Amino acid sequence: MQFLKDFIDSISLANVVDIGIITCLLYFVLAWIQATRAFQILASMIGIGLFYFVASKLGLILTSLLFQYLWAAIIIVLVILFQPEIRDILDRASPIRYLSGRYPNDMSPDLVEEMVKAVSELARLRIGALIVFRRMDRLDNLILKGKLLDSLLSAETLVMIFQKNSPIHDGAVLIYNERIKAAGCILPLSRDEALGVRYGTRHRAALGLTERTDAFCVVVSEERGEVSLVEDKEIHTYKKKGDFRQALEGALARGKGLQQAAGPGVVTFLKSNWLLKLLAMATAVLLWFVVIGPQRSEVGMSVPIQYTSLPAGMEITGTWMDRIDVRVRGSESGLASLKPGSIRAVVDLSSVVTGLNFFRITEKNLLVPPGTKISQIRPSDLHLKIEAASVKKVPVVPTIVGTIPENAKISVTPSEVRIRASQNELKKVKSVTTDPVQISDLGDKRAISVPVLVKPDGLDIDSIEPLQVSVGLETR
Of 121, 202, 235, 325, which alpha carbon lies 20 to 30 A from 196's? Predict the structure, then answer.
C-alpha cells in the first residue's frame, strides 16, 4: 500500500506527458513492425526484460547478474536484427520527405488514363500483372529489383512487359514519378494465414508490401481477369473500368493527404488497433517504473556553485561560498546513478553592482538529471562582495642569493609586470619579486626564467602578466 501511495504522490503533469509521449512513440514503432519478424523478436525481448525485472525485485542475484551481463550483447543483436526496420522508421520520420514540394506519384490525368487502359487490356487478355506505386516510404530494402528501366509510362509498355514471352513478365513493375522505374521486381509475401485460396502469389505479394510500407498495388488476376487495388492491407476488386479509375485516382489523392476530413480520421485512429495501443501504454508505464519510478527515495549531497557571466572589470572579493548542501529526491536507481558533478548550482552574475550583492538560490539555479527533484537547499541565501577591478604596472625586484660581482649588475626583462586585481588589493602592492636566483647560476648562463611572486602573501590577485621574467647578469 505504501508503494501505491508513493506512486500516486509522485504522479505529476510532467510525468503524464512523459508517459504519453513514450506511448505514442512505442505505438507507431509497434504498428510499423507488427507484420514483420521484428515484432515477434521485440515481444520476446520485452518478455526477457520483464523476467529480469521480476528476478531483480525478488532478489534472485545469480539470475539478475546473468541477464545484466547479457543486456549489452542483446542490444547489439537488436540493432543488427532490426537494421532494416530502424532504417525504415528513420526514413519515415525524416522531415525532408514532407518538405519536398511535389508528391512522387502526382500523375497527370493522361497518365491515369494510360494506366486504366493498360490494366483493362491486361484483364481482357487474362494476363497476370502486379504494379507497385511507391509513395513516400523507401522500398529498397523490401523489394528485389529485377531490371532497371526508367522508361516513360504508357499502356503499350505495360502490356508488353507482362506478355508471357517477355523476359521480365514474372514479377512486379515499380512506378515512381510518372515513370516505370523497374520491372521483374520480387516483393515480400504476406504472412496473413486468414487469406483464402482465392488469392494467389500476386495478391499475397501486394499485401506483403502494403503491410510494411505506404505503397499501394494494382493486381490483375490471370485466372479470373479481375482487377484489384491493394492498399492499407486490404484488397478491393473492381469489375467496371470507371470504378477502377475512380479508385486509382482516390489512392493517388490519399497519398497527398487531400482526402478524409480530420474529424473522422481522428475517430477512426482512436478506435483502431486499441490492443496495440494498450500494449504501448503498458510498456511505457513499465519503462517509467524501471527507469524513473515513484520518487520515494531521498539523499543529501554537497554540490558545487558555478559563478557565470561576471562583467569585465568586476572582481569577487573577500570570502564566498563554493558549495551548498541539497536534498535530492528520486527513484532508487536514479539516485544510485548520480555522480560527482551530476548536480551543480549556477549563479548568474551579469547584473551585479559594486558592493555587497545578495542572491537567493532556488531550483531554477540547479542543474539536475532527468527524474530527480530538489527538495531542500541549504543555505539558500548567499552574498558576494563585488569590486571594480583595475590594472597596475609594478616593478620587478628579483630575489638574489649570493654576492653580485663589483663589475656586474642584475638585469630583469621585462622590468615591470601588469597586475589585475581590485583597487583595494592593488594599493597594497608596491613591487613584485621572483623565486630565489643563485648568482652561480647566472654565471653559467646569460639569463634564466623565473616565476614572479607577489608579497606579502594573502593578496587576492586576479592575474599577472607575464607570469615569468628573465633574470640575467650584465657587465657594467
Answer: 121
Q: Record the cell numbers describing residue 199, joined without a space.
A: 488469392
Are 334 and 372 in contact by the 8 Å Cβ rule? The answer is yes
Beta strands in 134-276 (DSSP E): 147-152, 172-176, 179-185, 216-220, 227-231, 234-238
The CA distance from 299 to 332, in Å, is: 10
d(CA 176, CA 255): 13
Question: Given CA atoms 122, 126, 132, 133 in this order, what sign does their dihedral have?
Answer: positive
At 353, give phi and psi (nearest 5°): -125, 165
Helices of type H across 213-302: 241-255, 262-271, 274-291
Identity of the amino acid at 357: N
The bridge status of strand 323-330 relative to strand 314-317 is: unpaired
pLDDT digits (tens, 9 = 90+) for 221-279: 888 888 999 988 888 999 888 888 888 888 887 765 533 433 344 555 556 677 778 87
Distance (Å, whole) CA 164 – CA 62: 64
pTM for the model = 0.43
Cell 613584485: give the residue: 432
φ/ψ of residue 166, rounded to 5: -80, 140
